[in-house]
Amino acid sequence: MVSQSIQFEPLPPRPELAALRDEVRRFLAERQSSGAYAPGAEGWAGYDPAFTRALARKGWIGMTWPKRYGGHERTAMERLVVTEELLAASAPVRAHWVADRQSGPLLLKFGTEDQRQTYLPRIAAGECFFCIGMSEADSGSDLASIRTKAVKVEGGWQVNGAKLWTSNAHRVHMMILFARTGEAGPTRREGVSQFLVDLSSPGIAVRPIRNLAGEQDFNEVVFDGVFVPDAMLVGEEGQGWKQVTSELVYERSGPDRWLSSYFLLRQLADQAKRKGPDAGATRQAVGRLAAHLWTLHQMSGSIAGMVEEGSLPNTEAALVKDLGTTFEREIPEVVRKVVPEQARFGAAGNPALAHALDHISLHAPSFTIRGGTREILRGILAKSLGMR
Amino acid sequence: MNELTKMISDSATKLFADTCTEALRVLAEQGEWQSSLWDMAADLGLTMIRPGGPEEDPLDLVALVTIAGVAGAHAVPLPLMENLLARRALAAAGLDDEALEGPLTLVGLPSDLNLTGEPGSWRLSGRLARVPWGRNATAVVATAASADGPRTVVVMGAQPTHLDINCAHEPRDTFDLSAWPISDAWVGQPGTAASAGVLYREGALIRAAQMAGAMQAVLTMTVQYARERVQFGRPIAQFQAIQHQVVELASQAAASQAAMLAAALAGDGAAFEAGAAKLRASEAAGTVIAAAHQVHGAMGFTYEHPLHFHTRRLMAWRDEFGNEVEWARWIGEQVACLGGDHLWAMIVAPEQYRSLQTGAVAGHA
After folding, report:
1. CA nearest A25 in B: which residue?
2. Number of domains chain B contains
3. CATH of residue B205
4. Do A6 and B283 touch (CB under 8 A)?
5. I need a labelling partner for B133 at 20 to 30 A (CA). Which of A192, A212, B28, B259 fits?
6. Which segments of chain A are extended strands (E)?
7. What is the pLDDT of residues A325-353, one digit of tens each?
8. Does A373 touch chain B (CB under 8 A)?
9. Per-residue DSSP letters for B99-154?
10. If contacts are CB pairs under 8 Å, which of residues 260-279 in chain A contact chain B?
């Protein structure tokens, strides 16, 4: 069937959100002037538990969750406003990012009452950080092919296997583990389950993997007979595929998929103020990127509106992530052409821009891979168009 | 979308789905004015929309882009939107258009039109270039320079001095006026005129909306063709290389639609948003045209297959009222005034930066 369902209903302007934006900006300005952080090219990849706790004190973690779980019962739009402002200011939000974005919402939706009461208040307080246990060595885009197994034992499960490309596993507390617990079935989507795993459990070894920029960000996490109590099963045994799909909507739909290179665009806007032989090309480039950025901001708002109304816009999230990450990757490609080496390093050079360009160029290849490759996203979209 | 806008949209969709056939489009391309189609549109109220009161003003931009989207999706060979935009400009200038039989049109490229004389003996001189459907229009609405500043003027009864078409075979004519007499009734008061920049920007938004409609039609046709066309024993829709091209088409169409609607919602003064929407649509058109034709293969390159009615319009419209480079330069000049510290604030609240958004587009006055 040909679907006509890819729709981005525009949101009417909501002036009442402006006060919240201002509040976040004032908070960030204070943090910067007190030296707590300086905006930089690493953007939202900055990992800073102290900053996270300060955000939690403002009530900006777990914003949409019920108050009885430490949340603040704000709207999805309000959360979008806060996350946009944090990312546009390159705030170091990485420590709590996964927990706030997807692990918490997953527990809220599928977790037991005990799990919610134990973990959600700690996440919202900025004290408990999560990582994502999905990919494996032989299971990247083909997530259903995972081989990490959880076998039923007395009082719980015994886990053997290994997860790969697990960002932050070396410094967070918990993992949401996606593991095989039964027969795959003809669709291969049966017999998979999700678990809350305490990363300090015996039998877990976290091995760092240096990325091409020389940093330790992602890891291999090896499970050697790790015991996971029954109480840590998330949702229903065997229903992991459905759960993980809904979790991925949170992972794909936010402004972290189109603001990763914003710091460099901001540098380009500063460069555009300068006169000189490259001024015309620079202004044209920054004008075009500004229009694209504004469009993505509108589309993200539209998704938040759908989430607010209780729908799970899987297709729209995939579309915005594809467009957004393409935009993030394009920014360094544009900047290097309109701000050539002479304009970066010559007598009237712009070293701040040059440094940001190098950093973001090095990290850009990951943008269209993490959280679902471009190819997987396009497969989801092709399906919704009735092409497969 | 309010109730009235939805009603207008539904009745327009029904009318054009029933009447706007390929045969009719071919006749229009051969130069035949589609008077009965115009009359049917007029009967539905699509050519003379009156303000419906303070709460439901059907001349608002959301209503206009809604009609434009329908017109674009059906490749309607009429100056439907030019007529409505012209009437909107007249309403803004306090000129009563009710007595004016349509279709009206407006100037395509900003002009060097000059108004001289005084009440009772006004004269217009200058060139009106690329006037959409100029030969078929009863009057052209433009902004003329005068001793008291810009005034809205209605040029009636002039004959084009040069006939031309765009690549969708829509008329784009030129009028050369030399001391053309114009009655007092069709000269707006100074200070009431929409500046040429406003007309141009509203034209840009409306073209963006027509383009978004056309892109949706192209998407539907392309998906359908890919599902029907069999090669190597299966529908080509099953090939990943085809799927990804169609997905890119769909994404570009969705982004254009979202940008255009957001710009319309932002209201009358939203210059940055209108320019950004036209930029987005004009840039998207390149991807959309290329992907649609690649998937349709040789069949899409024939006159017989109706794809071209939409893709040729996209080819033409992406350059009208500012292409993506012109609007990028215009936005870029504003960003250059702001610098990095204010860029983000401008993106989320362009309405706070209106005073910056008054500059001309690409040298147009």
Report:
1. B345
2. 2
3. 1.20.140.10
4. no
5. B259
6. 130-133, 149-153, 156-164, 174-180, 192-198, 204-210, 216-229, 233-234
7. 999 999 999 999 999 999 999 998 999 99
8. no
9. T--S-EEE-SS----EEES-TTSEEEEEEEEEEETGGG-SEEEEEEB-TTS-EEEE
10. 262, 265-270, 272-273, 279
In a shared domain, residues B224 and B344: yes
Q: What share of chain B is helix, strand, coil (3-state, %, to 5)?
A: 55, 15, 30
- Residue B108 sits in the same domain as residue B152: yes
Side chain identity at residue A302, one-letter code:
S
B332: nearest CB among A84, A89, A284: A284
CA B133 to chain centre: 13
> Is position B191 within any domain?
no
Q: How many CA atoms lie within 13 A of B304 on its CB side?
A: 4
What 8-state DSSP symbol labels residue B188?
A: P
**Is B340 close to A386, i.e. CB distance below 8 A?**
no
- The answer on A260 and A369 residing in a single domain is yes
Whole-angstrom distance, CA of residue A104 vs CA of residue A98: 8
pLDDT digit string (tens) for chain B, length 365 residues: 678 788 889 999 999 999 999 999 999 999 999 999 999 999 998 998 665 544 445 478 998 999 999 999 999 999 999 999 999 889 888 888 888 988 999 987 878 999 999 999 999 999 999 999 999 999 999 999 999 999 999 999 999 999 999 999 999 999 999 999 999 999 998 887 767 788 899 999 999 999 999 999 999 999 999 999 999 999 999 999 999 999 999 999 999 999 999 999 998 889 999 999 999 999 999 999 999 999 999 999 999 999 999 999 999 999 999 999 999 999 999 999 999 999 999 999 999 998 887 766 644 43
The answer to whether B226 and B235 are in contact (CB under 8 A) is yes
The pair of three-digit structure tokens given for residue B74, joined into one six-digit string: 């059906």
How many CA atoms, within 13 angstroms, populate the side-chain half-sphere of residue A196? 24
- Distance, in Å, from the CA atom of B176 to the CA atom of B153, rounded to the nearest integer, reads 15
Tell if the CB–CB gap between B251 and A323 is shorter than 8 Å: yes
Q: Which of residues 286-315 of A touch B (CB under 8 A)?
A: 286-288, 290-295, 297-299, 302
Do both B212 and B261 map to the same domain? yes
Q: Specify if B364 maps to a domain.
A: no
Which helix (H) or strand (E) segment holds residue A94: the answer is helix A94-98
| CA R_g for chain A | 21
**What DSSP string runs through B166-186?**
-TT--BEEEEEEEEEEE-GGG
Residue B263 makes CB contacts below 8 A (sequence gap 6+) with B61, B205, B208, B270, B273, B274, B276, B277
Q: Which two tokens stand for residue B198?
A: 């406003």
The parent domain of residue B126 ranges over 3-186
DSSP assignment, residue A165? S
A218 lies in the same domain as A268: no
DSSP 8-class letter at A310: T
- Do A31 and A116 have their domain in common? yes
Chain A residues lying within 8 Å of B288, measured CB to CB: none
Q: Chain A partners of B346 at a C-beta cutoff of 8 Å?
A: 290
One domain for residues B159 and B276: no
DSSP state of A152: E
Same-domain status, A99 and A30: yes
ipTM of this complex: 0.95
A200 in Cβ contact with A112 (< 8 Å): no
Token code pair at residue B8: 């207008």
Whether residue B103 is found in the same domain as residue B242: no
d(CA A35, CA A383): 49
pTM above threshold 0.80: yes
B247 and B174 in a single domain? The answer is no
Q: Chain B partners of A379 at a C-beta cutoff of 8 Å?
A: 240, 243
CB A35 within 8 A of CB A96: no
Of A294, A381, A385, the CB nearest to B276: A294
